[in-house]
Amino acid sequence: MYIVQVLSTTAPLMLAYYLASLGHSIVEKSGVLNLAIDGVFVLSVAVAFAQAIYTWNNPLIPVVISVASSIAVGLILVYTTSKLPVSHGAIGLSLMFLCYGLSGVIGVPARTQQGLTGQEVGYPISPVSSVWVLLYIVVVGLGFLLHYILERTKLGAMIKASGEDPLVAEALGVDVLKTRILAGVLGFALIGLGASAFELLYTRIWREGTGIGHGWIAFAVSLSSGRHPLLGIITAFLFALLYEYRFSILAVGLPREMADALPYITAITAMVIYMATPLKTKLKTPKSLGKPFFKEERTI
Amino acid sequence: MASISLVVVKRVKPLPSWVAPLLSFTLGIAVATVLLWIVTLGRTDPIVVLASIGRALAMPQLLLKNFALLTIVGIGLLVSFKASVFNIGGEGQFYFAIIAATWIALFSGVGAIAIINKVLMLVVGVLLAGFWALIAALPRGFLGIDEVPVTLLMNYIAYYIVDYLVFNPWREPKYKYPRTPTIPEESWFIRIPGTTGTIELILLTVVVMAGIWYLMNNTRLGLAINVMGSNPNVLRVVGINPSLIVVSSLVISGMIVGIAGVSYLAGEAHLITIPAEACTPMLGYTGILVAWLSMLRIAYVPVAAYIVSALINAGINIQIAGAGKASVVDVFIGTILLIYSISVIFTEYSVKIIVKR
To answer: Which residues from A are below 8 Å from B345, CB to CB?
Structure first.
């Protein structure tokens, strides 16, 4: 019974981290270094909150607009990095700043309105509800579906080829720009969905800065699992569990901050392990991740 | 049917290097102003925003602190960027220097002894910041693990270490606020009247600029760092281990950022407030903007730092629809950086629009 309770209290956060990390993994599998993730996550959280306020908790509109804004920012990242010889890191970090800023500018007026009307946002689902079982099944199913797409379909092969060696992929007839845009739309939609889950199912409140750092945890989930959709289920659950129970580990004598820092420590350790051990063949970073992809064109 | 396509072509002759930064500042400010106007549904007056930036630019005495701190951080990051090592971990190095300096000032017993305290704060602060950078530098140098995610994630680890220290052993005992006690007044940097700067900070800025200029232009290590950025194989040919150059550039970078951390504590904050991840002045991140916009030239770092510090001050004055200063500043910084990151390639490339019939 205790296990069921742990599973259901961890569910909202696990859902948010896992969806966002799945999206991040797909984007990076296609070779685009995604440093915008925390910014996009925070922006989508603010958009979901603001729309929930303005639409009186409409079940659909906040999620749709939040996902759309995530895709919009993601497309800027994917298009510029695949069309022009620009630095992935620079574009990603710029978008991160821009999204942090926009989230404040978008969220604060909605927060002010909330102060006047007392409107509540999100869905407080009871921890004993069977909805969580359903959500777990859907999310884990999604993980398996994406794993299947990546490993067994042509689209998956195209995405991975674009991330490993885009020039060779292009020579073999893959349209790298199109593939990355496709991966970007899918990936950022999932990141936006994760952020909506974070706001509407998990925090259900908003103030300036809500969500900052949680995008990086999703980033850490993805890195720790070697961008593998199925391994991500485990890391997302563990990091969500750690965050949810960070006050409880005080009882064991460990400081709460240790739990806060653990996802990041795990991610870095995992990167080192995946690079330095035989796990490399399956879980290492895509070879061309973050490398400018640019065919110089001389003919006019 | 006619199809239109964009083709990126290399220029025969590159544009002058100042074009991209100038373009991104002017266009960036314009775009950000319009963006704010749109997102707030017309509630921000573009004229007020621009006037606020203009006023901030015209008041150097109020910019002094951020200008000097950003110059130091910018120079520090430049050292690693020159080697094509992207130190995004300025925040963590900044805070590790603060941890060391706070310990010296509060708990080492020398906090109230003039001169020795400040010297020790700087030395230990710089060393600890360098150590934090070293942790990311070793796997980058010897295992080839991308330093960008590592330094970035280490910022958060550093924040939480600060949170732990301040929340538990270092917490001020009187009211139990989430902060340390104020460091002894003897360890404060001396404020220059009428400005936001301190004497020591200005001295340190000059020393850092001169020192790094000398390092980069007149020493073997500086040359190797420059070569590392363009062609690491040359280093192998002349018998220098590129791994060591990577490690030293990142560690030096972290140490310089550490100087800014100590100066921030001794000149401005005088205590640590937590949660660090929310209370940080974000100079480790904003410094990236400064270093990039300087086109990695030491002489241009202060110019970029001046403009960015003006934007920070302007953001503080613009209270848009109740959104805090940080949000507005971030919109400006993000837009300018984005435009710069894209426009900088047009120094060497141009875009042609081709219509095929």
So the answer is: 84-86
